[in-house]
């Protein structure tokens, strides 16, 4: 039976019942590290990253402002400033500032970087969190299914914890029930891949956009993750040769070292292994039948993939995360969420017949500290990271639809389609790229555009993507300083 979030009517305020990827700000690049405030006893730190919660270009929204206010009341010697970076350039801006030594005290952890550019938090995590009453090491306050634990989830290639998750992330496909009804589509029709494609055709015939899509790397990346969980099972199992400690073994999800080893030894090759072609072929069917017709000309800019088409009542569906359903507070249609449809073996001979998986993971809101931050600024930044991973943030999680990373906290209701069942279970490939990898130079790009538009052949696309994966693997080997012969 299709696992859907209960269909919800719009709300104007309050609890974030289902979630979305909020609009990213539009202000320009930020200043560097903030100096101390006018009071010599006050340390000022700055947090810089994309807005995942609201459309505000100056702050992450009222709930965030309340969180910062409460933190400053509890810690009167620390002032926190928030700088919002736009979606179109946040990654490049943060990476450039980090390299130049001008990035502020706290930066979004998905910024392109190497382990030696950021502070190792290992020692801090081994001590109790001052805002927790468990008395345990800080690392043990987290849910070990997502951060820490025996598999050392959250560690970088150098074996260190470098960022702290404020929440967890999952994604789903939002649907506009009014548009589905107008097109004669039942939500249950969307459970299978062929049913989903048929529904897209009916939605187009009714004059609506089926699946709001843009040219960013999120819609293609999320769809690829879902498809890979059903089509790349043998390939992913084959590369799983290193444990979380970097030694021979296995890990779930597979480690970066396992994937890099696979590409550098040619044990996996996108141009030869059939699962990769199957993913791309299914992805193209999805785009051909369901994506916004001019998706390649639409920049990522809104709470949902495809910009404003979903909240603007023009699209029947859109991808979104579990963050900030407040973007739908004022809409006049009913909505809900569903997982990605299941591919049957009749859809592809590479399909398992099992439901798609994406998983709840610690890839949501997480921040790290540049390695050059020292002294009082470093202490203040760590204090803030402790605060946002403690019971102090329960209200913020409730108001932003956040799934907690800390065991003592609870997720708000209404996230069932994103937070339960097979879809909420992390696949062996994981969320963060799985076997689809690329070097830093193309990390922010949709590298499948040519194939999806029909200007690049499947064969050429697979060769290009495999070259990208090999280049990525070489970068990982250098940064992690792996000494094995295959990594040289």
Automatic annotation (TrEMBL):
Source organism, top-level taxon: Bacteria
Signal sequence segment: 1-31
Keywords: Signal
InterPro entries from the UniProt entry: Bact_solute-bd_prot1, SBP
Pfam families found in the cross-reference section: SBP_bac_1
Protein name: ABC-type glycerol-3-phosphate transport system substrate-binding protein
Record carries keyword Signal: yes
PANTHER family noted in UniProt: ARABINOSE-BINDING PROTEIN-RELATED
């Amino acid at each position: 039976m299709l696992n859907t979030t209960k269909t919800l009517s719009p709300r104007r305020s309050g609890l974030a019942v289902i979630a979305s990827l909020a609009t990213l700000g539009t202000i320009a690049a930020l200043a560097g590290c903030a100096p101390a405030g006018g009071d010599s006893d006050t340390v000022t730190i700055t947090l810089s990253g994309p807005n995942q919660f609201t459309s505000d270009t100056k702050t992450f929204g009222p709930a965030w402002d309340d969180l910062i206010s409460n933190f400053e009341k509890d810690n009167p010697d620390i002032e926190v400033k928030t700088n919002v970076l736009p979606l179109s350039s946040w990654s490049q801006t943060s990476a450039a500032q980090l390299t130049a030594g001008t990035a502020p005290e706290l930066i979004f952890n998905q910024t392109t970087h190497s382990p030696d550019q950021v502070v190792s938090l290992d020692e801090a995590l081994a001590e109790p969190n001052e805002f927790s009453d468990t008395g345990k090491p800080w690392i043990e306050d987290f849910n070990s299914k997502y951060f820490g634990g025996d598999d050392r989830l959250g560690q970088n290639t150098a074996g260190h914890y470098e960022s702290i998750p404020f929440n967890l992330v999952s994604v789903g496909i939002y649907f506009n029930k009014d548009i589905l009804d107008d097109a004669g589509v039942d939500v249950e029709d969307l459970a299978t891949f062929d049913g989903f494609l048929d529904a897209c055709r009916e939605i187009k015939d009714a004059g609506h956009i089926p699946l709001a899509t843009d040219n960013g790397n999120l819609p293609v990346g999320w769809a690829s993750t879902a498809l890979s969980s059903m089509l790349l099972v043998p390939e992913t199992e084959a590369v799983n040769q290193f444990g979380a400690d970097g030694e021979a073994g296995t890990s779930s999800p597979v480690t970066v070292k396992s994937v890099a080893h696979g590409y550098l030894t040619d044990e996996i090759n996108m141009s030869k292994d059939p699962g990769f072609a199957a993913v791309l072929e299914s992805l193209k069917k999805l785009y051909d039948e369901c994506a916004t017709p001019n998706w390649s000309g639409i920049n990522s800019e809104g709470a949902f993939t495809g910009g404003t088409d979903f909240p603007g009542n023009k699209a029947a569906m859109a991808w979104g995360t579990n963050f900030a359903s407040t973007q739908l507070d004022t809409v006049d249609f009913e909505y809900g969420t569903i997982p990605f449809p299941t591919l049957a073996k009749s859809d592809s001979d590479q399909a398992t017949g099992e439901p798609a998986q994406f998983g709840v993971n610690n890839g949501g809101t997480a921040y790290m500290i540049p390695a050059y931050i020292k002294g009082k600024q470093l202490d203040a930044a760590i204090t803030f990271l402790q605060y946002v991973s403690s019971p102090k943030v329960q209200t913020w999680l409730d108001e932003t639809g956040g799934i907690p990373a800390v065991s003592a906290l609870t997720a708000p209701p209404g996230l069932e389609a994103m937070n339960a069942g097979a879809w909420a279970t992390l696949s062996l490939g994981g969320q963060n790229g799985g076997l689809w990898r690329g070097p830093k130079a193309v990390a922010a790009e949709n590298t499948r555009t040519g194939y999806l538009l029909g200007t690049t052949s499947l064969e050429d696309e697979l060769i290009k993507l495999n070259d990208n994966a090999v280049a990525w693997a070489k970068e990982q080997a250098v940064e992690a300083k792996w000494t094995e012969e295959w990594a040289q």
